[in-house]
Amino acid sequence: MTNVVVRTKKRAEAEAVAALGKHGVSTAHEAMGRTGLMKPYMRPIYPGALIAGCAVTVLTQPGDNWMIHVAIEQIIPGDVLVVACTTDNTDGMFGDLLATSLRARGGVGLVIDAGVRDVRDLTEMGFPVWSRAISAKGTVKATLGSVNVPVVCAGAHVNPGDVIVADDDGVVVVPRLEAAQVAVAAQVREANEADKRRRLASGELGLDMYGMREGLAKAGLMYRDDD
Amino acid sequence: MTNVVVRTKKRAEAEAVAALGKHGVSTAHEAMGRTGLMKPYMRPIYPGALIAGCAVTVLTQPGDNWMIHVAIEQIIPGDVLVVACTTDNTDGMFGDLLATSLRARGGVGLVIDAGVRDVRDLTEMGFPVWSRAISAKGTVKATLGSVNVPVVCAGAHVNPGDVIVADDDGVVVVPRLEAAQVAVAAQVREANEADKRRRLASGELGLDMYGMREGLAKAGLMYRDDD
Amino acid sequence: MTNVVVRTKKRAEAEAVAALGKHGVSTAHEAMGRTGLMKPYMRPIYPGALIAGCAVTVLTQPGDNWMIHVAIEQIIPGDVLVVACTTDNTDGMFGDLLATSLRARGGVGLVIDAGVRDVRDLTEMGFPVWSRAISAKGTVKATLGSVNVPVVCAGAHVNPGDVIVADDDGVVVVPRLEAAQVAVAAQVREANEADKRRRLASGELGLDMYGMREGLAKAGLMYRDDD
Amino acid sequence: MTNVVVRTKKRAEAEAVAALGKHGVSTAHEAMGRTGLMKPYMRPIYPGALIAGCAVTVLTQPGDNWMIHVAIEQIIPGDVLVVACTTDNTDGMFGDLLATSLRARGGVGLVIDAGVRDVRDLTEMGFPVWSRAISAKGTVKATLGSVNVPVVCAGAHVNPGDVIVADDDGVVVVPRLEAAQVAVAAQVREANEADKRRRLASGELGLDMYGMREGLAKAGLMYRDDD
Amino acid sequence: MTNVVVRTKKRAEAEAVAALGKHGVSTAHEAMGRTGLMKPYMRPIYPGALIAGCAVTVLTQPGDNWMIHVAIEQIIPGDVLVVACTTDNTDGMFGDLLATSLRARGGVGLVIDAGVRDVRDLTEMGFPVWSRAISAKGTVKATLGSVNVPVVCAGAHVNPGDVIVADDDGVVVVPRLEAAQVAVAAQVREANEADKRRRLASGELGLDMYGMREGLAKAGLMYRDDD
Amino acid sequence: MTNVVVRTKKRAEAEAVAALGKHGVSTAHEAMGRTGLMKPYMRPIYPGALIAGCAVTVLTQPGDNWMIHVAIEQIIPGDVLVVACTTDNTDGMFGDLLATSLRARGGVGLVIDAGVRDVRDLTEMGFPVWSRAISAKGTVKATLGSVNVPVVCAGAHVNPGDVIVADDDGVVVVPRLEAAQVAVAAQVREANEADKRRRLASGELGLDMYGMREGLAKAGLMYRDDD
Asked: How much is the ipTM here?
C-alpha cells in the first residue's frame, strides 16, 4: 500500500451538514434506514456536545500519531477529523496541542478509534472528542499511514467528505452524496415525533397509537392473569 | 416457549419499597446477605439518580423492542421497567418517546440489559436509566417476547413485582416477599454506620474498632520493618 | 508466600511529589520516557480530580478487603492507597467508611484495581478514587494478603513509596528515586508547551513547527490531488 | 442470606435425560422455544464431549472453592456439577483431584462459571468441563456459599435437578419438569432434519424448501442486477 | 435503506484466487502492504483449514438469519459466504443444514461476524468456518437485510467478488481488482522466505541478515553488561 | 527512558528449572504461595506443550517487533523469550521465521503479551507459544524498546533470568533466586497428591479427607432436606 495524502475538495453540502447537526445521531441514523453507526464503544469525553461536519480521514499505525499532524493541514473550516487505526489501539494519540492546532484550522471536533489525552484541557476548551478510550499513553512519529483515503473507523466505513454527526448517543456517518436526502428524511421524522410525544405524554399507549395490537395477536401473543 | 403477557397485581409492599429507596443499593445488597446485584456493567446514564420500585419484566429479542411497547401497558405508578434480552445486545431499544410513555403511566425508571438512546433528552427529562450501553442503533418490531415472566437481567434473577433499587453504585433486586425484612435490616445497618463513621473520622482505626488484630495474628499476618 | 505488613518510612521527597502534582499524568508519563502508566481501564469516579502522593501498597484476594483495613494504619499524611488484587476482580472493596478512615489518617486518594462503592458519598466528600469498576458487591474479611510489598496494579509495577499521579487521563507511577528528576523533566516539558500552543493557535502547522516535512518525504509519503 | 446445603432427591426423569443427551445443545435449545442457554463464553476444555445430567448447584465466592468440596457429597450417579459465583471470577476453582472425587461419586461433568485448571490431566481422564476460563490460579477455603439452591450460572437460571446438556455448541438448561416434553420435541425436530438435509444436499434451496420467497417479497426485498 | 439482493457476476480471476490460496493469510496481508485483515476475534472452528474464494456478502440483523437463506442462491462454485451484522451479535446464525446447502451450491467456506453452531457436525463435514463466536442460540427469520452490497465484516470492508483468504492466522480480504497483483507479490515474498529460513536455522541472526545493527545504533540503542 | 540491551549471565539454576518443568504451572504457582501467574488470557497455540526455561525479556512498542530481533542475540540454550508491550496490542509480532531463529539459538519457547502468526507452521515445528492473541497483522521495525530489563507481562512482573513455566493451564513466573526452593516445595506438594488422588478415587470425600466438616459447621453452614 502506498502511503498517500489525498488533497480533496469533496465535501457534503454545507446546508445538509447544518440540517443534520440539528437532528442528532439517532434521528440521522434512522433517517438513513438504520445504517452508518460507529460501534457504541465510541464515547464523548464530556456530555452535551453535538457536532456535524465533513470527514477528513486518517489511517494511523498503533501508537503512532505522525499522520494526525499531516492530516491537520488538509482541514478546512467545518471539518471533523476522523482517525482510524490499522489495529485495535487505545494510546493517547491526540491531546490539547493537537486540538489547538485542529481548531485553529477550523476543525470542529475529533472522532478517534484510539485513545485521547489531556481531557481536562479539552473539556475546558470545549473541544469535543469521541474516542474508544482515554489514555495518557504517549505515541511516536515513526511510521507512515494515509490521509483522506476510505477507512473503517469503529466499525463504520468512512469516505473523505462524508458527514459525521456525533452527540451523546454516539457517532454516525452519512455518505456525502446522500447527505441532503438524509437531512430531509431526518426533518420529516422529527416533525412526526412532536405529535407522538404529546399523545404519549397524555397517557395514550404506543400499542394503540401505532396500532400494534392486531399484529401482536397475529404473531401469537397471549395474555393471561397471574395465578 | 409460549409468548405471554402476564397481568399481575403482585407488587412488594409500598412501605418496604419506600424504605429501601432511602438506603440505596449497597446497603440493600448487604442487608440481604450480599446477594441480588446485577453485574457492574449496568451504569446510570447520568449521576445522582436513586430509585426504588417494583419490577415489570420484559424478555426481548436482540434488536427488537416490540415487547417494550407491550410492557408499558402493564405499568402502574411506582413501577420500574426491567428489560432482559435473550442474548447479549447493545442496541438502542429505548429512547425519549418510550420514556415519555413510561412516565405517563407512572413508571419511575428503566433498567435495561441492552442499549438506550436519546440520553441527552432523557437527562433533561430527569428520567433515570441504568443500561449496558448507550447506542443510537435503531430496533425493529418483528418478534415476540414475554412480559412479567421471570427473567435473568444482567446476571440477576428478577421476578415480576420484585423491588428494584438503583443508584450510582448499580442495581439490586430484592425479592418481593423479602422486601419488608430487607428494609428493616437495611435500616439497622445504616443506623450502625453513623457511629462508625464518626469514630473513623476521629482517627480511630478499623483494625481497633472492628477488633481485627487478633484474627489477623491468628491467621498468620506478620509485621516487619523495612530494611 | 508469607503474608506481611512492611512498616516503611520510604517516601519520595515531598518537593518532587508536589511538583509532579502540578503537571499531571500525561506530562509525568512523557517526562519518564513514556513509561509507568496503569492500563486505561482505571477511571476516576468523578471528573476534575488531580492528586499526587506516595504509594502505600496492598495486595488483596478477590472479594476480600481485610488487608485494606490493615493498610490504613500504615498511611501517613500525603499518601495514596494503591490496592492490587491477586486476580481480576470488580467487587466493591472500598466505600465511604474506609474513605473516612483513610482521610482521617491523611490519605489523599485511592487507586484500586478492583471495584469501589458509595460513589455518590465519595463524590460529595470530594474523595478521589481511580478504579477498574464501580460495584456495590460486598466483600468478606477472611484471607490475608500483604501491605507495602511490590505489586502489579492495573499493569504497572508499584513499589511502596513510589509517587502516584492521577487525574482525568489516568494513573502513572513514578519510581521513588526518580521522582525529583522526573519532576524537573516534566517542568521543562511543560515550559516548552506554552510556546507551542501559542504558535499552533495562530495557525502554524505542526508539520512546520516540528519540521516534519523532510522526514515524511524521506519515509515515502506521497501527495496527490483527488480525481 | 443463610448459607445452606439442601439435600434433595429431585432429579429429572432418567429417560428424558438420556433422550436429551442424544440430541445435543442446539436441538434441545430449539425444542424449548429457544431458551435456557448459558452465555457463549462457556467453552469445553476439549472438543467432542457431549453430556446430559441433572444439576447439583453450587454458589461460591470469588477465589474460594470450599463449597465445591461440600457439593460433591450431594452428587449421585448421573449428576452434573454446576458452579456459579457471586461475582465474575476466573480463578482455577477445580482441578484433577476434584474431578477424581466427582467422578468417584458418579458425576459426569462440570459446568463452572469461573476457571478450571489441570486441563491436561482432565483431558487425559476424559472428564468433560465447560468453563469461563482456564486458569492455574489457586483458591482458598474460607467463606461459605450454598449448595442446591437456585443459581444464575453464565446468564442462565438453574434449579437443582434441572437437566444440563453440554456439547461443543455450549450449555443449555432444561427445567426438570419440562424435560420429558422437551425430549419429545427434540426428537420430533431431529426427525424433520434428516429429510431437509437430504434435500438441501441435492441442491434444493432453503428459499424454496421453506417457501420463503413470498414472505421476502411481501417484506419488500428487491432484486437487481449489478451494473 | 432499500433491502436489496444484487445479482452479480463480478468475481476475482480464478487464477489469482488459487494463487492466494497457496500462500495463506499472513503472506497475502503483507503482500498488500499490511492491509485487509479482519479483527483477530475471528477464529476458525477447527485448526488446519485454509481457503480462498470470492465473497458473496450478506448484511443481517442481530438474531436473524433470513438473509443467509437468500444469499445461498447467489453462490457459485468457489465462493465464500461473508456474513456481516448491523450490530455486535453472537447468535448461532448458521449450522449444519445451511452448510449442507452452501456446499451443495459450491460454496467453500463461511466467514461470519456472529455465531455459528453444530460445530461438531461442521467439523465432521470438513466445512470450514471462521466466526466471532460459537453459540447454539437460535435465530428468527423476520427482518430483511441485503445481499451482495459492500459490508464491514469484523472491521474489514468487503465488496462482493473480493477474494477472502482464511486460515489459522485469521481472515484477509483482497480487493477483486488487486487480486492478481497481490498474488504475484505474495509469490515473491514467499520465495524470499525460504532462503531466510535456511540462514536463520543455521544460526545467523536477523540482526545481521537484515542489517539492522546500524539502524539500531543510530536510533540510540545502548548495550551494557549486567552489574 | 534510555533504550538498553542488558547483557546478563544471570539465570536460575538449571537443576531447579528442570525440576519445575516436571511439575507444571499449577503446582509451581501453589508452591510459591499462589503467586506469579500471568493473566488467563495467555493461551497456548496448541495443546499439550509444557516448558520451563529462563526469561530473556523484551519491552516492545505496539505494532513493532524490532526489539525481538535484538533480543534473540541474547538467548542462550534453554531460555524462553518473554515479550511485553508498552500498551495492549494483538499484532502478529512473531512468526515462523523468528521461531526458526529463536530455536537455532537454543530458545525453547515464546511467551508474548501480544499476537503471534504462522501458527500452523509453528504447530508443525512443535514450537510452543503462549500469547494474548493469534493475528496475521504485520509489524514495523521503527521504534526502540529494551531487552533484559524488568517488565510487566500479562500482569506478572518478570526479571531477566526468572524461570518461566508454561503449560495448558497458563504461564507462571518463578523469581530466579527462589527457583530452587520453589522446586522443592513443588516436589513435596506433588508427592502429597498421589495419595489424595487414590483416596478420592476410592470414593472418600474431600470433606472427610481434609477434615472440613468442623470448620464448615463453625462458619455456620446449615443442612436441610428439600421440602
From this structure: 0.96
